[in-house]
C-alpha cells in the first residue's frame, strides 16, 4: 500500500492536491493500523508527505504576494460577459486573456502610491465603454466586474458657411432626431452642441437659416463644416 501511495503521489505536482491526498491516505492508514503494525511506517511516511506539501504551499503563498493578479470580467449592457473587449489599466502592462476575462500581473513594487488601479474597457464596434477603480490592498487575487454602457456625452462642433465659404451667423444647428436641442452659430459661424451619441457614432447634423438648409453625416466627437444651400 505504501509503495502504491508513493507512486501516486509522485505524479501530483500541486501542493494543495498533494496535501489532500496525503490526508486521505493518513485516514486510511490509521484505520488499517489498528489491525496491522506494518502500516505504522506508512503513517510516518505520509506525515512526511504532508509536511513537504505544506512547506511547498507556504513558499508558493509567499511568492504570490510579490504580484497582484487582477482578473477583469467585462459585462455588456445586458450584464452578460463580453469576450472581445479592449481592456487597459492605468498601471500599464498587457492584459492577458484568461478563462472568463482578462488578467493583469502587477508587481507589488509597481503598486501606485495611493493603491488605486484604474481599469478601462471598450467595445468600439458597439460604441460601448466603461471604467472602474480598484484599491490594491491585502487581496492578491482580486476580481473586478467592469460594466460597459453607451456614453452619449460626445459633442459635435464646427462651423456653418454659405456657398461662397463665408461664415453664417445666427443659423440654427441641431442633431436630427433631437428637437429642442438646437444651438445658434456665433459671430464666426461656429457652434458646439450635444451629439446625443458616443464618440465615433455617426449622427446627422442639420443647419438652417431662412430658406437655406444644410445637412451632413459625421462621427460624434469630430469637427464638421455644414454648407447652406437653397433646397
Task: Please outline the helices and strands.
Layout: H1 2-10, H2 15-33, H3 40-64, E1 67-75, E2 86-89, E3 96-98, E4 101-107, E5 116-123, E6 128-135, E7 143-147, E8 149-150, E9 155-161, E10 172-175, E11 183-184, E12 190-194, E13 202-209, E14 212-219, E15 223-227
Parallel strand pairs: 1-7, 9-15
Antiparallel strand pairs: 1-4, 2-5, 3-4, 5-6, 6-8, 9-12, 10-11, 10-13, 13-14
Structural class: alpha+beta
**Percentage of residues in strands:** 35-45%
Q: What's the total count of β strands? A: 15
| CATH homologous superfamily title of the largest domain | PapC, C-terminal domain
- Indicate the radius of gyration in whole angstroms: 32 Å
Low-confidence stretches: none
Please describe the biggest sheet, giving its number of strands, its sense, and whether it closes into a barrel: 4 strands, mixed
CATH level-two architecture of the largest domain: Sandwich
Distance between the termini: 96 Å
Helix fraction by DSSP (H/I, runs of at least 4): 10-25%
Which strand order do you get reading across the main beta sheet?
3-4-1-7
Q: Can you tell me the CATH class of the largest domain?
A: Mainly Beta
Using the coordinates shown, work out and report the CATH topology of the largest domain: Immunoglobulin-like
Total tally of structural domains = 3
Which tags fit this structure?
single chain, 231 residues, Immunoglobulin-like, 4-stranded antiparallel β-sheet, 3 helices, 15 strands
Amino acid at each position: 500500500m505504501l509503495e502504491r501511495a508513493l507512486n501516486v503521489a509522485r505524479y501530483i505536482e500541486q501542493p494543495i492536491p498533494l496535501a489532500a491526498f496525503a490526508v486521505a491516505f493518513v485516514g486510511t492508514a490509521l484505520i488499517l493500523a489498528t489491525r496491522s503494525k506494518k502500516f505504522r511506517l506508512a503513517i510516518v511516511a505520509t506525515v512526511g508527505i504532508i509536511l513537504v506539501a505544506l512547506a511547498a504551499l507556504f513558499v508558493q503563498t509567499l511568492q504570490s504576494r510579490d504580484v497582484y493578479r487582477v482578473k477583469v470580467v467585462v459585462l455588456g449592457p445586458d450584464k452578460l460577459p463580453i469576450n472581445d473587449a479592449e481592456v487597459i489599466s492605468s498601471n500599464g502592462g498587457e492584459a492577458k486573456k484568461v478563462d472568463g476575462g482578462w488578467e493583469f500581473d502587477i508587481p507589488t513594487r509597481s503598486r501606485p502610491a495611493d493603491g488605486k488601479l484604474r481599469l478601462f474597457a471598450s467595445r468600439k464596434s458597439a460604441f460601448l465603454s466603461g471604467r472602474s477603480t480598484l484599491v490594491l490592498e491585502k487581496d492578491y487575487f482580486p476580481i473586478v466586474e467592469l460594466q460597459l454602457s453607451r456614453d452619449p456625452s460626445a459633442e459635435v462642433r464646427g462651423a456653418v458657411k454659405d456657398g461662397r465659404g463665408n461664415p453664417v451667423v445666427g443659423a440654427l444647428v441641431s442633431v436630427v432626431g433631437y428637437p429642442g436641442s438646437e444651438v445658434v452659430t456665433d459671430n464666426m459661424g461656429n457652434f458646439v452642441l450635444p451629439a446625443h451619441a458616443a464618440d465615433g457614432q455617426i449622427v446627422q447634423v442639420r443647419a438652417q437659416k431662412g430658406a437655406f438648409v444644410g445637412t451632413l453625416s459625421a462621427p460624434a466627437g469630430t469637427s464638421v463644416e455644414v454648407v447652406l444651400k437653397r433646397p
